[in-house]
């Protein structure tokens, strides 16, 4: 027995009701799961070379954070290439990207019935609808014609949402607004998160990106302030021009002015040629001043002049150079307090904080932690060539109950280390992370409800603070190098460090 006309009518009504795109997607999957009586379903949008989940039903929350590169997932590649309904045999040896990620079942079970529906609009692939079940014959009673109708309705809903998204972007460039326009959530600059705090931040990013206002990104260390700057630039009219990054905290006082404004030959010892500064390199684009609160008062005054008048002088030159640069600054300091304490100029603070954005700490983002975990695990799975990499349920509870003073960066490093440890124990390419691999520091046991003993992950007990810290750094660097095949540049990116700083740290730790 297949689907009746009333079933299709119900699905169509759900997709045309006056709700947001996200609500429509959620209703779509709820209706599909009810009509087809399946264990799980997912709606994915196709962008570039990857599928990104927009909505899920019956799958672990972390799936929403994963980015499925088509070439690395044979089943999704088959769906993308098919152009029609794809029924995978129950004994197919193609790995399923959702194996172990249906939390209502024993995570040792594997999906046996899998149907993929490519979503096509104007003869172009825009997404996919996947339907999974543990019963290998679950979808036998539904004809291909039934499934094509479901696919067509889903494709129409997704295409409408994508068109609205494009209209919103166009309206922003034209300086007008479209009331009620509501496209699917897209991850600007790969900002992962669907919590209320992150959705509010994304709306603020969209608003300020359409202007040329100076933005000040505030937030604790490790929250992702650089990603916010990238998202603002990427959605702005300057997106085709350079985004230049400068870490103010890493600037030695002796070269800071030259880094910002450039110098002429002979301006000082070692100035053997003319050199452009960051402002000139960013001309027409955006200059991101990270940790701007670390600038000296003298340099703050010179920066203020450029912001006020739009011109600069290279060190050693009397010639003024006009520049057109948008400034995005970031800091983890309380600049208002810094102004009161006379460590930061009040006039520069007001220049920078025209449009402040607060990036929430991880502890305020709820289930976003699991989305981020899924994003990072998919990255490590790809880099290590694993067929699957996931958390068990106890690990999910442990992560959700832990304290994360280092925020997203700490979570990323914790999962990277856990991946290396779990892979070393696994006899196959299907790797599962258990709580023992998540050697957390100060945290709370979600089952016992009491604080766990304080320890530094990877350090031997009984060491002093400095020795324990250095030992942990050595082990983390070694593990990261191993995961990246000895590539120092890739390891630096994974650790969130500048490559030169990583080399210097390794030398100080006696590793080079």
Automatic annotation (TrEMBL):
Residue stretches making up the Sigma-54 factor interaction domain: 191-420
Membrane-spanning parts: none
Molecular functions (GO terms): ATP binding; sequence-specific DNA binding
Keyword tRNA-binding: no
UniProt record, GO biological process: regulation of DNA-templated transcription
Top-level taxon of origin: Bacteria
SMART domains: AAA, GAF
The keyword Transcription regulation is assigned to this record: yes
Keywords on record: ATP-binding, DNA-binding, Nucleotide-binding, Transcription, Transcription regulation
Protein name, UniProt field: Nitric oxide reductase transcriptional regulator NorR
Biological source species: Ferrimonas sediminicola
């Amino acid at each position: 027995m297949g689907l009746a006309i009333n079933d299709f009518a119900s699905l169509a009504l759900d997709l045309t009701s006056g709700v947001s795109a996200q609500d429509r997607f959620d209703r779509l999957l709820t209706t599909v799961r009810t009509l087809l009586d399946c264990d799980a379903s997912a709606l994915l949008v196709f962008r570039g070379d990857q599928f990104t989940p927009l909505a899920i039903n019956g799958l672990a929350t972390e799936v929403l954070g994963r980015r499925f590169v088509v070439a690395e997932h044979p089943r999704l590649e088959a769906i993308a290439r098919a152009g029609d309904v794809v029924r995978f045999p129950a004994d197919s040896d193609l790995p399923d990207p959702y194996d172990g990620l249906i939390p209502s079942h024993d995570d040792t079970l594997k999906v046996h019935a899998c149907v993929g529906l490519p979503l096509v609009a104007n003869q172009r692939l825009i997404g996919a609808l996947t339907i999974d079940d543990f019963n290998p014959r679950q979808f036998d009673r539904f004809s291909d014609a039934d499934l094509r109708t479901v696919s067509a309705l889903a494709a129409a809903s997704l295409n409408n949402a994508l068109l609205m998204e494009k209209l919103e972007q166009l309206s922003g460039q034209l300086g007008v607004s479209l009331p009620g326009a509501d496209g699917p959530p897209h991850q600007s600059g790969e900002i992962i998160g669907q919590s209320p705090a992150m959705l509010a931040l994304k709306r603020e990013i969209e608003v300020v990106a359409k202007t040329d206002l100076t933005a000040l990104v505030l937030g604790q260390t490790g929250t992702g302030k650089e990603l916010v700057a990238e998202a603002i630039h990427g959605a702005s009219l300057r997106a085709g021009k350079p985004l230049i990054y400068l870490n103010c905290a890493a600037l030695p006082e002796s070269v800071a002015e030259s880094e910002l404004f450039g110098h002429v030959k002979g301006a000082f010892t070692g100035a053997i040629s003319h050199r452009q500064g960051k402002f000139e390199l960013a001309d027409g684009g955006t200059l991101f001043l990270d940790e701007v609160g670390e600038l000296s008062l003298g340099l703050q005054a010179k920066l203020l002049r450029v912001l006020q008048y739009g011109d600069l002088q290279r060190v050693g030159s009397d010639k003024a150079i006009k520049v057109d640069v948008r400034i995005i600054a970031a800091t983890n300091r309380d600049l208002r307090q810094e102004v009161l304490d006379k460590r930061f100029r009040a006039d520069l603070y007001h220049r920078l904080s025209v449009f402040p954005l607060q990036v929430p700490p991880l502890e305020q983002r709820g289930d976003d932690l699991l989305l981020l975990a899924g994003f990072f695990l998919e990255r490590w799975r790809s880099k290590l060539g694993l067929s699957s990499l996931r958390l068990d349920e106890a690990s999910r509870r442990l992560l959700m109950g832990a304290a994360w003073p280092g925020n997203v960066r700490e979570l990323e490093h914790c999962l990277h280390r856990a991946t290396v440890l779990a892979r070393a124990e696994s006899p196959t390419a299907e790797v599962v992370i258990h709580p023992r691999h998540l050697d957390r520091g100060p945290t709370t046991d979600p089952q016992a409800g009491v604080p766990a003993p304080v320890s530094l992950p990877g350090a031997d007990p009984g060491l002093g603070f400095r020795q324990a810290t250095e030992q942990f750094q050595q082990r983390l660097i070694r593990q990261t190098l191993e995961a990246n095949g000895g590539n120092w540049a890739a390891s630096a990116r994974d650790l969130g460090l500048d490559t030169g700083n990583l080399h210097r740290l390794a030398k100080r730790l006696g590793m080079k």
